[in-house]
Amino acid sequence: MTDADPTQLLALASEAARVGGELLRERFEAGGKLGVSSKSTPTDLVSEADLASQRAIRELLWAARPDDGFLGEEEGADSVVAGVIHVPMAGETFTALRGGGPPLLNGSEIVGGKPRAERLDEALVATGFAYDSRVRSAQAEVIEGMLASVRDIRRCGAAALDLAWTAAGRFDAFFERTVREWDTAAGALLCECAGLEIHELPERPGLPAGLLAAPPSFAGALLSLVG
To answer: pTM of the prediction?
Structure first.
C-alpha cells in the first residue's frame, strides 16, 4: 500500500469505513432477526450484518487497490499508513495519517473534552475482557490490583472505539489483552499521532499478549501494573 499517496489511502479508507458503517446502521435501525452465531466461544458472537459490512468494505478496497492484502476480523492479511475508525450511530469518523499530524474527528482537529490526566491516579483507563472465562478471571485479578491506583475503569466493548476515544482525550489511557491487529491497528495509529506511547503487553501465565496506550507521563507506571 505504500506506493500510493498516503492522503489518497486515507480518503479511500474513510470511504470504506463509511460504506461499512452505513450498512450496519441500516441493519440496526431496520431491526428484525440479526442472524447471530458464535465463533471461538459462546460469548464470541458475529452477526450476518457484521459479515455483510466486511464484504462491502473488502469489495470497495479491492476495486480500488486489487493488489493489496486484506485483514479483517471475520476473514483475512496486512500495513498501517492511514487509520480510520467510523462510529456510525454517533456520526463520528476518527482519522489519522502517519506523519500527518494529530488525529482528526470528522475532518477537523479534535477539540473540547476534559484535559488529559498527567498522573496515573487521575487517569480514566479503558479496557476490555476476553471471551474465554479462564482469561477473564485472570484479568479480573489485574483490575482488582490496579483500582486503587487509577481514577476509574471504563469498558465499552470495542477496542477500536476505546482507542479512538483515548486518542481524542475522552479516556486517558487504554490497555487490553486478547486483542488482534484488526482491533487495534487504526486505533494505535490514532493514539501515536495524538502523542501517546504504544506498548505491547507480552504474554504471561494465564494472560495472552495485548496492547497499551498512555501518555508518556505515566505509561511506564501503568505498564508496571498491567504488563
So the answer is: 0.78
